[in-house]
Amino acid sequence: MILMTLTPSDVTAICATFIALLALVVSLVQLKIQRKHNQLSLRPYLNCNFRFDTAKPISFRVENKGQGVAIIKALVMVNLGKRKIIKNHFDMESAFLEAGIDLNKVSFSGSIPAREGYLMPGDSLTLIEFHESAKDTGLYKFLNEKLDPVHFEIEYECVYQKRYSTH
User: At CB < 8 A and 24+ separation, what contacts does 155-158 make?
Assistant: First the structure.
């Protein structure tokens, strides 16, 4: 009985409203999918590795192999299961001393990423490099033995505040 009281312009208006609501729902779903795609495509991926090559100095490098900026939250050195947060040069010296390496007695260089520092896609950072290890086989063997149980973990996040960690 209601259909009898509706005029053709009323039916047209109801259909237009229904189509507009469907378009709104489709747009919202598409927006959600696009945001998820952006999060996945702009994800940083940090690749961390010690380089134990006798022809080159022993070093620890971090590379951002992802497509997004990695915002560094924490740097942790793990030695025999014991975790030590590295915030500055003194923490680095202390952590290596606990591993049996006195950084004051070996030639090294490196940098500690600042908290909230960032690593752009394709960029790399050398945390530490022992210069003389490529030339001095005794030093190379000593460092290789002491650094065997050591690894670094980096906690970082993407621009969408999603947290990641290297293990």
Answer: 155/72, 155/73, 155/74, 155/75, 155/76, 156/44, 156/46, 156/70, 156/71, 156/72, 156/73, 156/119, 157/70, 157/71, 157/73, 158/39, 158/42, 158/43, 158/44, 158/68, 158/69, 158/70, 158/71
The four Cα atoms 104, 64, 119, 123 give a dihedral, to 10 degrees, of 80
Question: pLDDT tens digit string along 121-164?
Answer: 999 999 899 988 888 889 999 998 999 899 999 999 998 899 99
In angstroms, what is the C-alpha Rg of the chain? 27
Global pTM value: 0.74
